[in-house]
Amino acid sequence: MGSLAVKAKTGLSGPWRFAMWSAAAGLLALPAIAMQFTPEVNWGPGDFIVMGGMLAMLCGGVELAARFLPGKRAFGLAGLALLAIFLLVWAELAVGIF
User: Fold this and answer.
1) Residues 54, 78, 12, 67, CA torsion sign
2) What's the pLDDT tens digit per position in 59-84?
């Protein structure tokens, strides 16, 4: 009898996964560093929580896209869509454009 099990992809390879999550952590650390040098950047705990959640959802979406989408083109399009959604939500929360 044939097996119906589907071989699962592993998603992003180790160096790419580490680079993506490290970049997200670095982006989240930038305002904390900037707050030490200028009063123009004034983030509260809620701001860090919201941005951390947004970055976690973006990186998690990229992880899911890498794991479940069949090809590089589909992965690239999904990545662009996720990035566009992230930037739209960020712009809305920052200045209320829409």
Assistant:
1) positive
2) 999 999 999 988 889 999 999 999 99
pLDDT at residue number 7: 56
Reported as type and span, the H/E element at residue 37 is: none
**Higher per-residue pLDDT: 97 or 95:** 95
Decide: 35 and 48 in contact? Cβ < 8 Å.
Answer: no
Q: Identify whether the C-beta of residue 24 lies closer than 8 Å to the C-beta of residue 63.
A: no
**Domain assignment of residue 75, yes or no:** yes
State the residue range of the domain holding 22.
Answer: 14-95
Tokens of 49: 């929580």
